[in-house]
Amino acid sequence: MTDRRATPAATELRRFRVKFAGTCVLCGALLREGAEGLYHPKTKTIRCLACPAGPTKFEAGHFDVGTPGASALGEYMRRKDMRETETRERWGNRLGGLVLTIFRPPQATRAWGDGARGEEEVAAAVGVPGVITLNDRRVPGTRGNIDHLVVSPAGLFIVDAKNYHGIIRIRHGRASFGDEERLYIGRRDCSHLADNMTWQIRAVQYVLASVGAPYPVTPVLCFLSVRWPLNSPDWFRGVRLEGPRSLRKLVMGMPTIDPSVIVRLAGTLATALPPK
Q1: Domain-by-domain residue ranges, the chain?
Q2: Which pick of 64, 155, 164, 171 has the fewest CB atoms within 10 Å?
């Protein structure tokens, strides 16, 4: 982010009058309803016609880093409450309470709770001085979310937390897959996890390009409960494979981003990709 005033080509920006108050993706200034500004359709972000001089709100840390696991926990509670309501309506308050005590929630429900705890663990692992982690980010125009966006001196990392169990390894696929390599956790084929990060990478790259900050982005699958063999893989299909401890080392690696840029870069990403 060498020049925070850098903008996309003029043909990519539309001058418009703000209908709903929003935040400039470059400086963090509030654009009130009725003000004139510029709109970038691809990233669905707005910006000032001319950013104010002097320190930005981003440099003061005025942006929302989000809560790790918030949307996963919300979905877990929604499913849990719905199950409790349906059970009590069917069996009555007393007998329904006994049923809820004896029988665990379905695996599909428990997975959301495990996911929320996993995201909290990842956020704690990278919670070190000099590193800013944006948690549970919404990508405008999609229904998905990014678990963590880590901005550190060592670079920019998109981290997807996975609470899986089993030995991690890469092996050749069956005949239906040809000779292609596949990622396995235990007996489960998890190759799709790396492919599913493509849209997350693209969303972040669009934002960076739109503000003239084309920093490289490293996607990471962070596995919380897997067993790592001695010859465990480091990469799969362009995605880093890490645990919480090795992820911490990764984001604290060789500096490639000036510390003075980190807060402004995080502020821009926090505005373009708000908490879900």
Answers
A1: 112-272
A2: 171
